[in-house]
């Protein structure tokens, strides 16, 4: 069975994502010009979005990765995001732009914003491809004068995969965002 055959419905196509990423990139570029910025991708989910968004920000930014997980192999957050691989750059006094694939309960973003504050970031922005407001449990705010919230699309309240997002660590390599066929979860 090919990977595409596991998908019941495509929610955001490759084309839609690419157009929106380019719009977000232009907006971020306008806002960050002249501000030393560390763009931090939240691995593993954000790696595809990170690779695409930074190519749409033609400024002398630093690109970084932090690895955080709270979903494991299921479809529900355990509510306790764990940093399993840390930054290698000092973000003291920098503007940090957290790049996420999806904001769901908000606990990952809230935890990382607090973490960046504790590391001395002067401001923290969040750029997420998807936001599922229906599921929010933890509310968070960008930090500082430069802090802003950028969102690609509002996502329906369904478990989505692709473009970095997984179910049990599979489907991250799909170039679009979709919903799995129900029988996949039952295996
Ligand atoms: C997923 C997703 C976000 C987070 C969002 O990561 O990539 O990072 O959950 O959920 P929240 O708003 O409820 O915190 P996950 O923990 O599955 O790790 P992964 O990126 O390695 O898949
Ligand atoms: Mn993640
Ligand atoms: Mg995951």
From TrEMBL:
Q: Which GO terms describe its biological process?
A: purine ribonucleoside salvage
Question: Which UniProt keywords are given for this protein, alphabetically ordered?
Answer: Cytoplasm, Glycosyltransferase, Magnesium, Metal-binding, Nucleotide-binding, Purine salvage, Transferase
Subcellular location(s) per record? Cytoplasm
Q: Which cofactor does it need?
A: Mg(2+)
- Domain Phosphoribosyltransferase as annotated: residue spans: 15-167
Q: By its UniProt entry, which InterPro entries does this protein fall under?
A: HGPRT (IPR050408), Hxn_phspho_trans (IPR005904), PRTase-like (IPR029057), PRTase_dom (IPR000836)
Keyword match Metal-binding: yes
GO cellular component annotations of the record: cytoplasm
Q: Which family does it belong to?
A: Belongs to the purine/pyrimidine phosphoribosyltransferase family.
Q: What name does the UniProt record give this protein?
A: Hypoxanthine phosphoribosyltransferase
Which species?
Answer: Castilleja foliolosa
Lineage, highest ranks first: Eukaryota, Viridiplantae, Streptophyta, Embryophyta, Tracheophyta
């Amino acid at each position: 069975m090919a990977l595409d055959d596991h998908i019941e419905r495509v929610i955001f196509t490759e084309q839609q994502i690419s157009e929106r990423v380019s719009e977000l990139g232009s907006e971020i570029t306008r806002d960050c010009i002249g501000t030393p910025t560390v763009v931090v991708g939240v691995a593993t989910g954000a790696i595809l979005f990170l690779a695409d968004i930074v190519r749409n920000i033609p400024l002398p930014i630093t690109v970084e990765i932090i690895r955080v997980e709270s979903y494991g192999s299921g479809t529900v957050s355990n509510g306790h995001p764990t940093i399993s691989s840390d930054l290698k750059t000092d973000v003291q006094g920098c503007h940090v732009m957290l790049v996420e694939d999806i904001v769901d309960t908000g606990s990952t973003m809230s935890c990382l914003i607090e973490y960046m504050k504790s590391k001395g970031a002067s401001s923290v922005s969040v750029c997420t491809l998807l936001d599922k407001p229906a599921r929010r449990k933890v509310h968070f705010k960008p930090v500082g004068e430069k802090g802003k919230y950028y969102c690609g699309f509002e996502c329906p309240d369904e478990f989505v995969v692709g473009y970095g997002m997984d179910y049990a660590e599979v489907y991250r390599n799909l170039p679009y965002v979709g919903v799995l066929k129900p029988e996949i979860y039952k295996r």
